[in-house]
Amino acid sequence: MAKRDYYEVLGVARDASEADLKKSYRRLAMKHHPDRNEGDEAAETKFKEAKEAFEILNDPRKRAAYDQFGHAGVDSSAGGGGGGAAGFGDIFDTVFGDIFGSNSARGGAYRGGDLRYDLSLSLEDAVRGTEVRIRVPKLVDCESCKATGSRSGAPPKSCGTCGGVGQVRMQQGFFSVQQPCPKCRGAGSTVSDPCRPCGGTGKAQGHKTISVKVPGGVDNGDRIRLSGEGETGQSGGPAGDLYVNVVVNDHPIFTREENNLYCEVPIDFAVAALGGELEVPTLKGRVVLKIPSETQTGKMFRMRGKGVKGVRGGGVGDLICRVVVETPVNLNKSQKEALRDFGGSLAGESKKHSPRADSWLDGVKKFFEDMKFS
Question: Could you report the average pLDDT of every consecutive run of 10 residues in the chain (374 residues)?
């Protein structure tokens, strides 16, 4: 039996955010979990199906492979069916941690929080790829107390509320879950004389400079994930991740739509009427654009392969030039006279030289006649 589309399984759009994926999976997991549907094979199947879909789409690398190649691109990583109820605990914290506070805590160790950084790039850097150094604000070890949290350096004492484990158990409907101890905030210990700069947490606000390799072809909204570059974990827990969000600045000449580039090319009246050649820019240099005679404003010229190669592969897009015939300005007396003579030479031959204008005037005339305007 063919697998259903993962986005269809979770009931989300193909551009769904991480939060949307998590929200949808949480709803389906709560509805179809075997603990709530004992003996219901259909519910168990739907639960496995949702779990497999979430595991793929919640991983940026697997999601990119699935978007490009479908199930064939992720079958080896999907586990051939997404596991059963026993595997539920592996991703429970990822989905429900923000409700129950579990956050993959084991013995007081907590994963650090994820960070986001908006990286502004020029269109040229986004298309070609680049490497930049960014300065990210993040929590670092407090220098005042050497990350102990204690002003005097006295060792922390075991928390009396959780018994030193950093967690307390609570009941949430059908689930019995653990959450960080409210007294020690999951550390499992407390200090009697907390350090003032860090408030006894052992962490203070600081910065870190990180080198980011930007692959060629990125566009607005693309994210680069730097594993382990987020907030440091607590009590030996792993660090979170840093998500670099790409923001491409407006370009004075080009606009981008997917892998195509667009630009407007102004031409003078003589070139539009008689034809000619002119140089137009591309991101790789200049090319010659041939303008045929009798070209009108709005005419589009496609230059194949002069666009962008997307970050997810595929062919190179095109450069599409839109011609704008520019009316001459700041004419001197002789130039104005020449234009009047030229206009006079066209008199009485509008159908031949200006068919669109002539047709429009005929339409206007008919409109007034039909409306019986006086």
Answer: 83 88 87 80 88 89 80 58 42 48 48 86 92 86 77 76 72 64 73 78 80 90 88 75 91 91 91 89 89 90 91 86 89 90 74 62 67 60
Asked if residues 219 and 140 have their Cβ atoms less than 8 Å apart, the reply is: no
Domains of the chain: 1-100 (1.10.287.110), 255-371 (2.60.260.20)
CB atoms within 10 A of CB 63: 20
Nearest alpha carbon to residue 266 among 306, 344, 200, 326: 326
Strand partners of residue 287: 280
3-state class (DSSP) for residue 13? coil
CA proximity to 103, closest of 231, 245, 242, 243: 231
pLDDT for the residue numbered 3: 79
Helix (H, G, I), strand (E, B) or coil at 156: coil
Angle between helices 41-57 and 88-100 (to 10 degrees): 80
| Tokens read off for 304 | 């194949």
CA distance 158 to 194: 15
What confidence score (pLDDT) does residue 95 get? 52
Select from 144, 232, 239 the least CA-distant residue to 191: 144
Regarding beta strands 242-248 and 115-121, do their DSSP bridges make them parallel or antiparallel, or are they unpaired?
A: parallel
Single-letter amino acid code for the residue at 153 = G
Rg (CA), the chain: 32
Q: Is 183 helix (H, G, I), strand (E, B) or coil?
A: coil
* Angle, alpha carbons 351-354-357 (nearest 5°): 95
Residue type, 238: P
Q: How far apart are CA 78 and CA 56, in angstroms?
A: 7
3-state secondary structure 303-357: ECCCCCECCCCCCECCEEEEEEEECCCCCCHHHHHHHHHHHHHCCCCHHHHCHHH
* Amino acid identity, position 203: K
- Counting Cα atoms < 13 Å in the Cβ hemisphere of 62 gives 16
